[in-house]
Amino acid sequence: MSNPTAYRFSFGPWNISEGGDPFGPEVRSAFPHEAKFALYRPLGFEGVQFHDDDVVPGLDDLSPEAMLTKAGEVKAMLANQGLIPEFVAPRLWFDPRTVDGGYTSNSAADREYAWDRTRKCIDIARAIDCKAIVLWLAREGTYFREAKDARLAYQRLLETLNAMLDYAPDIEIWIEPKPNEPTDLAYVPTIGHAVALAYASKDPSRVKGLIESAHALLAGLDPSDEMAFALAHDKLGSVHLNDQNGLKYDQDKNFGAANLRAAFNQVRVLEEGGYGSRGEFIGLDVKAVRTQTGSPVTAHLTNSREIFLRLVEKYRSMDHALVVALRESRDYEALELYIIKHLLGD
């Protein structure tokens, strides 16, 4: 375990929520968006995840000059706080023109809007010195399988990737898979689909994936296996660590809160794959529970970070020679008992 990775952490400003959820009114007062930047470093975070309209609110109604001026102001705020923009993602799913998806919409006009918004997102990323664009393909799917030509939809997604690669030769694209919600069934539900698109693109080295723990669980998959698959192809751009209690709505629970052993295995795979050694962030996408009082509420972020680091300690303090020996002898019962006892502190 020589030269172990010293991890860097990130989160998005949406993770300091105002206390709302899809099932009722807000229960906490709003916390000013730009004031959130001052919280990052004291909480142990240096990376900021962005949607394009987190950087430039109302960007569709602004001129290109005004948009870039606002982005420049945010760049200065980040510099003042010693923060690094990890990625910028086009928030396509909020606009009425993307109710049928953006890139895969049956409407040519809506597809053109999605591409225009994507170009703006890339321009914003460049303006704040960010080199990664995340595509969460939220509505790129259907509620009814017959509603779209799925083969054509995948062709359109690939065309979009290639157009982005042409538009910005200096950026990477990270695809964030999710199997459902808000669409019934999405077109890129797993990291395998994302990696296939990457290899089909005109520059596979610049197309990677972002794996969220809960999204893998919603697909009935193990997040650690999804991460291992991406790492095997050198295509893990980032992670969004959280947890999920079963195949329900996307819960964004604290990392390790629902299944500590599954969380340990995610840490194990990241450690074994050398993730973070090139500066990759440990991203969190966790939400405060509705019942929590106060403003701002940040314990869910610091708790998840602490759990991750404690599990890193658990991995690094394992008897790795014993694990290898038990694997070679195929004594998996003994291996499982050792892992559980180690997690319990024995």
Structural classification:
alpha/beta
* Beta-strand percent range: 5-15%
Q: Would you tell me the overall average pLDDT?
A: 95
Number of domains: 1
Mass-distribution shape: globular
The number of E-state strands comes to 10
**The CATH homologous superfamily:** Divalent-metal-dependent TIM barrel enzymes
CATH-derived topology: TIM Barrel
List keywords for this structure.
346 residues; alpha/beta; TIM Barrel; eight-stranded parallel sheet; two-stranded antiparallel sheet; 12 helices; 13% strand; globular
Describe this structure in words.
The protein is of the alpha/beta class. It has a single domain, classed as Alpha-Beta Barrel (TIM Barrel). 42% of the residues lie in helices and 13% in strands. It has twelve helices and ten strands. The protein has helices at 37-43, 52-55, 64-81, 108-127, 150-167, 191-200, 213-218, 223-232, 260-272, 299-316, 320-328, 332-344, and strands at residues 8-11, 47-51, 84-89, 132-136, 141-142, 172-176, 185-186, 207-212, 236-241, 281-284. An eight-stranded parallel β-sheet has the order 3-2-1-10-9-8-6-4. α1 (37-43) links the parallel β1 (8-11) and β2. α8 runs parallel beside α9 and α9 packs across α10 (299-316).
